[in-house]
Amino acid sequence: MARNVPRSAHESAEPSPTGSRKEYVPSPPPVHLTVTPRAKDALIEVLRVRPRGCVLHLTMVTGKNPHPNLTFAPATRGDEVFEQDGLPFVVDRESRPYLADATLDHVVEDGFASFEIEGPNLPQRHGRAAGKG
Question: Is 15 within the bounds of a domain?
């Protein structure tokens, strides 16, 4: 007898609303995140040279200088991996309220490239949202 087993970390083992046992309903992302086309292209290039299995970890660094942080590392046990624009992300539970409705962009300024994260829930720093990741 076949069991309903998720095909990936972001899919549910529950049958689809149509009742078919062969279809799976993806779990919704834990945060709504917008990835700009520039950021998507740059992230694909970064992931291409990373070891297989790396995902994009978005976290909020708290303390005296709060800011969002973007790192590239393999998912660990217990991480909830979700796809956004075809890219694998992990956002820890503590960071989700800050990163909800955020936008991830790739900016080249004065010859230096960086990823910037802006959003309505990020703490304000020097008159603008904390955002370089």
Answer: no
* Tokens 């919704």 belong to residue: 28
Between the two ends of the chain, the Cα-to-Cα distance in Å is: 48
Q: What is the pLDDT of residues 31-69, one digit of tens each?
A: 889 999 999 999 999 999 998 889 999 999 988 888 999
Residue 7 lies in a domain: no
| Domain around 48 | 29-129
Question: Within a domain: residue 66?
Answer: yes
Whether residue 110 lies inside any domain: the answer is yes
Place of tokens 């796809």: 83
pTM: 0.71
Contacts for 120 with CB less than 8 Å, ≥ 6 apart:
101, 129
User: Based on the structure, what is the number of domains in the chain?
Assistant: 1
